[in-house]
Design brief:
This protein is α/β, with parallel strands linked by helices and 308 residues long. 32% of the residues lie in helices and 29% in strands. The protein contains ten helices and 14 strands. Bound molecules: adenosine-5'-triphosphate. This is ABC transporter ATP-binding protein.
């Protein structure tokens, strides 16, 4: 599939010298959902803001649909919808008037059939004449999405779409996102919630201190999540791991006098029985054994924690 969004060597240094993005490279395919995971201050909003033309990059390029976000700003921007995290709506304005106003901002003719189809998709058609202040929190968030869709963007950015909302509303938002994907919209969402990325993303990107640490298919990450660890504490310290145990790719923690064996939790064979047999043959005596499951959360926390 073709890239709809291409980011090359993108860096951002804010005035005052703070380096918010460091040489980010990312290609996003048309029709995919990418979740950008990262702790506060990682650079997610900076990245989105550069692509949307709200912040200037210090170096590097970004193109949307082949249009450079700086040189071809208008064309690039016309392909992008942005749903901000904060709900900023005119309280006395009706839903439909809000949408008409947004169309005007993009210089789009008011197309009643289009507005109707957007509102129907977001289950807001019945509320078209309601003032925004009369809507529930979930409806307001859907109005923000409707406004972002008025100019029929091909790429939609959702900045923390479910920050601070209850479980039911989060699921409702996820359903909306899935429907948009079915309509062919490419979606990039930022989130702090790993379960959100698990629930809806095709790919997950992890960003920390301005660096994109990994971008991977969610299913592959889930396989990694399925890893388990067995920690075998030994009676005696070990100088070297015996050659006979090399096929288990064991790690050894001298501090804890512990051998660490990682294996696929869902694999057909865990290899534990043969490992025990081979440990016995090698004359290694065990003091204690523990198993633990590593989760996507572990992987994420391990990646983003500042090791400095
Ligand atoms: N205009 C600015 N001037 C200076 N520094 C800024 C500016 N905007 C953001 N930053 C800094 O850049 C870093 C990245 O901020 P950014 O908002 O992109 O992070 P984020 O990943 O979106 O965080 P959050 O999850 O909290 O929204 C932060 O340390 C922030 O303080």
């Amino acid at each position: 599939m073709a890239s709809i969004l291409s980011i090359q060597n993108l860096s951002k240094q804010y005035e005052g010298g703070f380096q918010a993005l460091k040489n980010v490279n990312l290609d996003i395919e048309e029709g995919e959902i990418l979740a950008l995971l990262g702790p506060n201050g990682a650079g997610k909003t900076t990245l989105i803001s550069i692509i949307c033309g709200l912040v200037n990059a210090s170096s590097g390029t970004a193109t949307v649909g082949g249009f450079d976000v700086v040189k071809d700003f208008r064309q690039a921007r016309s392909l992008i919808g942005l749903v901000p995290q904060e709900i900023a709506l005119e309280p006395f304005q009706s839903v439909i008037d809000g949408l008409r106003f947004t169309c005007g901002l993009f210089g789009k003719p008011k197309d009643p059939a289009l507005l109707r189809s957007i509102l129907e998709k977001l289950s807001l058609w019945d509320k078209r004449d309601a003032k925004t202040m009369e809507l529930s929190g979930g409806m307001k968030r859907r109005v923000l999405i409707a406004k972002a869709l008025c100019h029929e963007p091909r790429v939609l950015f959702l900045d923390e779409p479910t920050a601070g909302v209850d479980v039911e509303l989060r699921k409702e938002m996820w359903e909306v996102v899935r429907q948009l994907k079915d309509d062919g919209v490419t979606i990039i969402l930022t989130t702090h919630y790993i379960d959100e990325a698990e629930a809806i993303a095709d790919r997950v990107g992890v960003i920390r201190s301005g660096e994109l640490l990994l971008v991977e298919e969610k299913d592959l990450l889930m396989q990694r999540m399925g890893k388990r660890q067995m920690r075998v504490e030994l009676m005696q310290p070990l100088d070297v791991i015996p050659e006979a145990l090399s096929r288990y790719n064991l790690e050894y923690s001298a501090e804890e006098q512990t051998l660490i064996y990682s294996y696929e939790a869902n694999g057909e064979r865990t290899g534990i029985a043969s490992l025990f047999a081979d440990l016995g043959k090698a004359g290694i005596i065990l003091r204690d054994v523990q198993t633990r499951e590593s989760s996507l959360e572990d992987i994420f926390v391990g990646l983003v924690e500042d090791k400095s």
